[in-house]
Specification:
This protein is α/β, with parallel strands linked by helices and about 220 residues long. It has one domain: Aldolase class I (TIM Barrel, Alpha-Beta Barrel). About 45% of the residues lie in helices and about 15% in strands. Helix 3 (about 80-85) links the parallel strand 3 and strand 4. Helix 8 (about 185-195) runs parallel beside helix 10. The protein binds glyceraldehyde-3-phosphate. Glyceraldehyde-3-phosphate binds near residues 96, 148 and 149.
Length: about 220
């Protein structure tokens, strides 16, 4: 059977609603919806919550970033090895709010792969998606920066960027999956993104800042089924 992968990944960012008890409320809701619907939901909490959340929940847990450095005499870096030890199965790389140079993306992907960490490289346009696909990450997450946190879905505001990124990525790396992100907030947004060729979505505010994350996640999962 083919390996299952998350169709929905929630980035908790550094929202006040995303860590400590509030973060656990979101993770609990995600786990419940995953169990009820069978849709795989990944979470990317802050570093301090990686270990507790990977211990408490059956959800795939991702780091929000790793630094392109190896263990040794360095200080204050986020090591791929350390997030693996904390229980993460993968990591975002080059998120719009934590950009890296192309050389650093390449190195971060290489280091992540060397410790069997799944890589989700975030990109801002079709050309960057094609460039990042050359590193053969497990996922590319295409997110137009101007729509991030806007509540306006990339699926409706810029469907072309999803369709063209999927084509560009698959031309370079057939096994890389494409996530669509920015403003995703409903099952309809996901369904449209998947109809355009995306394999899933990366989202944040629509769930993390929701009054009822369970209700939003139930609606989101409905778009996948
Ligand atoms: O990592 C998630 C993306 O930046 C999307 O954020 P958003 O869903 O708040 O627009």
């Amino acid at each position: 059977m083919a390996k299952r992968f998350p169709e929905i990944i929630i980035n908790f960012k550094i929202y006040t609603e995303g860590f400590g008890k509030a973060g656990h409320r979101i993770a609990e809701a995600a786990e419940t919806v995953m169990n009820e619907t069978g849709v795989i939901i990944g979470i990317a909490p802050g570093y301090m919550d990686l270990h507790p959340m990977s211990m408490h929940y059956s959800l795939p847990v991702y780091a929000q970033h790793i630094d392109p450095v190896k263990p040794g005499a360095g200080t204050g870096h986020i090591l791929a090895d350390a997030v693996v030890s904390a229980g993460a199965c993968g990591t975002l790389i080059n998120h719009s709010e934590k950009r890296l140079t192309l050389a650093d993306i390449s190195l971060a992907v290489e280091i992540a792969k060397s410790v069997h960490l799944e890589t989700i490289v975030c990109t801002n346009d079709v050309f960057t998606s094609a460039a990042a696909a050359a590193f053969s990450p497990e996922f590319i997450a295409i997110e137009p920066p101007e729509l991030i946190g806007s509540g306006v879905s990339v699926s409706s505001a810029d469907p072309g960027i999803i369709e063209n990124s999927v084509r560009a990525v698959k031309n370079v790396s057939g096994s890389t999956k494409v996530l669509a992100g920015a403003g995703i907030h409903s099952g309809n947004c996901i369904k449209t993104a998947m109809d355009l060729g995306a394999d899933g979505v990366l989202l944040a505010s629509g769930v993390v800042k929701a009054k009822d994350p369970y209700a939003v996640l139930t609606d989101l999962a409905g778009g996948v089924i």
